[in-house]
Amino acid sequence: MPIQRFRISTDRRHQIIDITSQVQEIVRAVGCDQGLACISVPHCTCAVYVNENESGLVADMLALLSQLPAGDSWRHNRIDNNAEAHLMASLVGNSTCLPVSGGQVELGTWQRIMLIELDGPRERRITLTVVPG
Amino acid sequence: MPIQRFRISTDRRHQIIDITSQVQEIVRAVGCDQGLACISVPHCTCAVYVNENESGLVADMLALLSQLPAGDSWRHNRIDNNAEAHLMASLVGNSTCLPVSGGQVELGTWQRIMLIELDGPRERRITLTVVPG
Amino acid sequence: MPIQRFRISTDRRHQIIDITSQVQEIVRAVGCDQGLACISVPHCTCAVYVNENESGLVADMLALLSQLPAGDSWRHNRIDNNAEAHLMASLVGNSTCLPVSGGQVELGTWQRIMLIELDGPRERRITLTVVPG
To answer: How many Å from the N-terminal Cα to the C-terminal Cα in chain A?
Structure first.
């Protein structure tokens, strides 16, 4: 089952985008009935996670970033002013795995697959690896 | 290999439950000798992680929640008073992957598979996806 | 495809080690063209993540630990003085999954596979589970 890819353009420095419909469309096209899907990004300043797409919660998730101390305290900011983006991406993670059942990713009622952009705007690539069960 | 499921009832708002024995029993029944197991939850306010089941540490893990600022600062709490549960679940993650070897999940000496309930009491579903290596 | 293992000796209490070349060498030897690789540790006080190997950022990632409150506030420290190591390991995670393509782990330009030692020095084991796509 070949690895699948798609792209998303972000338009703000910090932004969360629901990528569930793109992922489901690709998984259906791949034709795997049962298995495991890994959604990953080949980037160091964005991440993926699975949670509810509610506008207040999306704002709260981005506000978590401001819990990290201010920029001058990070060494990486002497090179490139995006240390918080790298750190938050490392905590959230650059990949997530979900079951595939009946030819699509199995999600709970409120679960959505979310891309969190922490150093945009940029064009981001998402990789979808499906392995049969 | 069909996806497996089981349920756990939590009885407190914040609680950590060791689900290792249930996971191991199901993996043995599935009959996969070598491969990968993904343990996931179809929920947005609980999570799974792998660490030691020591009562002090379990209390500490729940106490990490209190490191997040108080409730009024989160927008999602205007809709449903559980923003911290969503945020902590997004940081810990709703799935974890482990090797399967010799027909069971391979864990280190002190490792246990833990369900962290952040908005209970509720009945929680756990999904186990095993793919052969 | 049998599970693969290798060892790394750490020499400080807190340390981050780039394990990308060891992982790539093993994946090439396994001979899986397309699939999924899971890199995991059978330990409770170290973790794995994927991000940039830049010396300032590596120091920043370790400095994140100091954002957790001081030792006396954790119950686990009455038993073993490493609660922060367990907590940080639980947040970062003891495993990460990446696509395998063309016989090796597919990484973005700046991505590296990093082992974070939080309670060294110790000899650490890394497990590599590859499943075909």
So the answer is: 12
